[in-house]
Amino acid sequence: MSPVVSAEGVTKRFGRVTALDNVSFELTDNTIHGLLGRNGAGKTTLMQLLTGQHFATAGRLTVFGQRPYENAQVLDRICFIKESQTYPQAFAVRHALEAARLLFANWDEAFAAELVEDFQLPLRRSVRKLSRGMLSALGVTIGLASRAPLTLFDEPYLGLDAAARHIFYDRLITDYAEHPRTVVLSTHLIDEVSNLIERVLLIDRGRLLLDQSAESLRTEYVTVSGPAASVDRLAGTGEQLHREQLGNMARVTVRRPLDAAERDRAASLGLELTPVSLQELMVRMTTRGSGRDSGATVKEGAR
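and the corresponding structure tokens:
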């Protein structure tokens, strides 16, 4: 089966600014992808390329096997919801939902009505008069109820309070289980969505640093704490992302899968092993080195 999205050496420049630099990856069918990175990393630019709002300066990008730019056959199968979502000035909330029903072939009216109730959206209120939270709720309602084969969320849920965000997460994972599709979540709230994400793409300064399944990341990265000599003995030649040392005690975040025997050995050496969260991994990989020069892309299976 061909991937939903295939990018090969994709570069996007705006004048002298390189927003994306030789990026290659694939988005697989029926998978929730986490598109992670700091502000200005290139996440939104990538989504704009996927949705045909820009074209690549170099490289090849296909969505559903075709180039997305000015391609209605591709764009009709995509729903892109962003934080700064705009609607026609004259629209009330119900008008935005009616327009979405006409735009998206897989639109589920009953599901949309449930989401309207969940988020207590005022159907007759002008979109211009919505609070930031209500505007975010309208966006995620459209994104979820569209059931588009490729659904992109570019941090539209930042305006939601904690309770509303959890409604979004719960509704997303429940509906995704019943109606699988390809979903991309671009977010700064990494700890909140880490349990939803099946595959991670990490971008920094326009370069793809990480493209790997979330499950494998949980087994490949570990933080080792304890006597420095023992820490170094266990960490061995593993790729160190971060190191802290105070006196003879050290704490090292390292890329080194540990089997059961090695974990037993760590315990015998008086070492503490803790998993590395996606949030911590992003911070470590995008800040190590004086120039944030984190090195090459880490692909699944690489050692």
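(Above: one complete record from the training split.) Residues 290-297 have pLDDT under 50 and may be disordered.
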